[in-house]
């Protein structure tokens, strides 16, 4: 499909842009390899998604981007592959690529390469270079290696972005430099030294080893699988025998060094080899050409199912809106019923298509909302309000279950009483659930906009990507089919973070949608949510999410804060 398409394809490469070395290089390598076949853009997981023909996810599957592309490709890194968190997403990925054989069923193996860089005509000095950068695996290996680096060995120049706790760093033939190198400085150093060290406890590719090969350096490597795969035939490499095990339960595909105690003899031989070293030509250029050829071969396995990139977000016209049931939980927050009513009334979802179910277990007579709810229900037509009072304090999870069981419609939305839901929120959520080609059983946001009613501070809360989906979701944004929900409800004993019990094992049924125009979560001091807005005394009020002044006064009054506006 890929190379045979008549038009220039749109490809989005998604990666953590704060990683300015490894992942940035990977993304640029993909971009250059696809030149002439695709228009490639880079995206960070926290940026709003845009539509593409193909999404390529580097190291981390970004689930919120999946619906925005016809095809999704995941490039795995074994040392960072969290099987428990990532595996449930794989059903929605058309291709999985690994840089070595990880025994993942159906995965394509793509031996990695590096970007070429300008070479200079310099005579390298007879010393070693060891670039640690920010790699924890290389730092761990460096502690072991430097501890057996004899004073009689050649000088080794070690560069890292942070200090290393090792007494041998003070040794006269060990230069330890703490510096964040620019690309130009790095390229200069690579060509300055005749010997390179790229020993590591684990690698997904190992740029320092590839760079050493590119400049024809004498290189000391250890026997981790990716190095053996890529350099076992190289005449420029001296090997340190370091047994590895796949014994990390978090990263089961990663091979990690299990024993570093017997490298001294191999290191002695490596140093002797360095004394007599004469460089031989590397095959880096062949690897670069093969990478491009193999990448396109893999992408060509994508079926030619879609002629155009998707048109998103899906649009649900008001006249086509199906009937829905909205579930709101209440507990000792009488004032917040007014906010909940505001959310319902400003919504552009047809009121005659809404069943609003309020589940209340207030145990403070002064905070009970029953009279307000009953009075509103009597005047709400065509909106239908169902009041479900409970006799005793009940876990949030069980209250959600009771609300869904009471619902008469098969499309159910949760709406918390203390959050803001923009005008189009309900219609957008139902559109993603009912109109997208993925045919999800549930949709949800993980990243959400937040606003602190006490301090006037805004933030965007995004749970760590290494957590399973069920631990990342905002239940306040959950939209699903009642029939799907009833197959396995919330664990009724859970008081917070109840989403995990509903979703675990069913992640492939769930679509993550972008948070824009879905919700702004309010923090007011009495929340039960685990999400918080980080702040300190120096943080000034800012970004009011475009709220009108009268609305700002209203929502701050709910937290007993008087707002003075110019």
Overall structural domain count:
3
So what's the CATH class of the largest domain?
Answer: Alpha Beta
Give the N-to-C terminal Cα separation.
59 Å
The name of the CATH topology of the largest domain is Spore Coat Polysaccharide Biosynthesis Protein SpsA, Chain A
Secondary structure class reads: alpha/beta
What does the radius of gyration come to? 29 Å
What would you say the CATH architecture of the largest domain is? Alpha-Beta Complex
Helix content: 25-40%
Chain oligomer state: single chain
Mean pLDDT: 93
Large-scale geometry: elongated
Largest sheet: 7 strands, mixed
SS elements, strand count: 25
Beta-strand percentage range: 15-25%
The total of helices stands at 15
Strand order of the largest sheet: 17-16-15-18-23-20-24
CATH superfamily of the largest domain: Spore Coat Polysaccharide Biosynthesis Protein SpsA, Chain A
Q: List segments where confidence is low: pLDDT < 50 over at least 5 consecutive residues.
A: none
Pfam family, one: Glycos_transf_2
InterPro entries: Glyco_trans_2-like, Nucleotide-diphossugar_trans
Domain Glycosyltransferase 2-like: 325-433
Protein name: Glycosyltransferase 2-like domain-containing protein
How does this model look, in words?
Pfam families: Glycos_transf_2. Residues 325-433 form the Glycosyltransferase 2-like domain. InterPro entries: Glyco_trans_2-like, Nucleotide-diphossugar_trans. Strand 11 (218-222), helix 6 (225-231) and strand 12 form a beta-alpha-beta unit. It contains 15 helices and 25 strands. A 7-stranded mixed sheet has the order 17-16-15-18-23-20-24, with helices on both faces. It has a 6-stranded parallel sheet with strand order 2-1-3-4-5-6, covered by helices on one side. Strands 9-8-7-10-11-12 form a 6-stranded parallel sheet, with helices on both faces. The chain has helices at residues 22-33, 83-86, 136-147, 183-192, 207-214, 225-231, 264-275, 284-299, 336-346, 370-378, 396-406, 425-435, 482-487, 499-503, 549-557, and strands at residues 9-14, 38-43, 52-58, 69-76, 95-98, 108-109, 125-133, 156-160, 174-178, 193-197, 218-222, 237-240, 244-245, 256-257, 324-330, 354-360, 384-389, 411-414, 419-420, 442-444, 448-452, 457-461, 479-481, 510-512, 520-523. The chain has 3 domains: 9-110 and 291-299, Response regulator (Rossmann fold, 3-Layer(aba) Sandwich), CATH 3.40.50.2300; 125-280, Rossmann fold; 319-557, Spore Coat Polysaccharide Biosynthesis Protein SpsA, Chain A (Alpha-Beta Complex), CATH 3.90.550. The N and C termini lie far apart (59 Å). With 566 residues, the chain is α/β, with parallel strands linked by helices.
């Amino acid at each position: 499909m890929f190379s045979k398409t008549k038009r220039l394809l749109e490809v989005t490469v998604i990666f953590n842009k704060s990683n300015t070395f490894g992942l940035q290089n990977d993304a640029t390598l993909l971009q250059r390899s696809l030149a002439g076949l695709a228009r490639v853009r880079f995206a960070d997981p926290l940026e709003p998604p845009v539509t593409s023909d193909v999404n390529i996810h580097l190291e981390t599957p970004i689930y919120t981007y999946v619906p925005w592309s016809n095809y999704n490709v995941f490039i795995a890194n074994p040392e960072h592959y969290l099987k428990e968190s990532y595996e449930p997403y794989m059903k929605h990925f058309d291709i999985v690529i690994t840089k070595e054989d990880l025994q993942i069923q159906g995965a394509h193996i793509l031996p990695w390469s590096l970007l070429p860089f300008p070479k200079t005509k310099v005579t390298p000095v007879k010393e070693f270079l060891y670039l640690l950068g920010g790699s924890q695996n290389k730092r761990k290996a460096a502690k072991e290696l430097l501890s057996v680096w004899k004073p009689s060995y050649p000088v080794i120049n070690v560069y890292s972005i942070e200090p290393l706790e090792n007494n041998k760093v003070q040794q006269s033939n060990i230069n330890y430099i703490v510096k964040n190198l620019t690309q130009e400085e790095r390229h200069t150093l690579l060509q300055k030294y005749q010997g390179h060290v790229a020993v590591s406890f684990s690698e997904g590719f190992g740029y320092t080893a590839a760079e050493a090969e590119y400049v024809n350096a004498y290189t000391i490597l250890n026997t981790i699988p990716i190095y053996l795969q890529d350099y076992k035939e190289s005449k420029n490499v001296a090997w340190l025998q370091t047994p590895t095990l796949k014994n990390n339960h978090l990263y089961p595909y990663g091979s990690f060094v299990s024993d570093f105690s017997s490298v001294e003899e191999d290191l002695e031989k490596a140093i002797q080899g360095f004394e007599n070293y004469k460089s031989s030509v590397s095959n880096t250029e062949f690897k670069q050409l093969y990478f491009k050829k193999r990448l396109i071969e893999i992408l060509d396995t994508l079926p030619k199912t879609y002629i155009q990139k998707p048109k998103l977000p899906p649009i649900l016209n008001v006249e086509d809106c199906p009937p829905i049931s909205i579930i709101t939980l209440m507990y000792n927050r009488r004032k917040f019923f007014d906010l909940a009513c505001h959310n319902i009334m400003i919504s552009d979802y047809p009121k005659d298509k809404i069943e609003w179910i309020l589940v209340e277990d207030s145990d403070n007579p002064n905070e009970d909302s029953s009279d307000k709810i009953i009075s509103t229900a009597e005047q709400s037509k065509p909106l239908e309000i169902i009041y479900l009072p409970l006799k005793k304090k009940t876990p949030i999870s069980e209250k959600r279950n009771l609300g869904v069981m009471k619902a008469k419609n098969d499309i159910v939305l949760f709406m918390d009483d203390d959050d803001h839901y923009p005008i189009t929120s309900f219609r957008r959520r139902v559109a993603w659930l009912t109109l997208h080609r993925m045919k999800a059983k549930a949709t949800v946001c993980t990243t959400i906009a937040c606003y602190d009613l006490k301090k006037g501070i805004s933030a965007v809360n995004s749970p760590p990507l290494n957590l399973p989906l069920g631990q990342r979701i905002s239940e306040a944004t959950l939209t699903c089919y009642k029939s799907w929900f009833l197959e396995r409800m919330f664990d009724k004993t859970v008081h917070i973070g109840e989403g995990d019990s509903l979703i675990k094992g069913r992640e492939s049924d769930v679509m993550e949608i972008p948070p824009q125009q879905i919700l702004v979560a309010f923090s007011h001091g009495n929340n039960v949510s685990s999400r918080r807005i980080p702040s300190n005394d120096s943080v000034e009020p800012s970004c009011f999410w475009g709220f009108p002044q009268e609305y700002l006064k209203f929502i701050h009054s709910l937290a007993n804060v008087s707002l003075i506006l110019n």
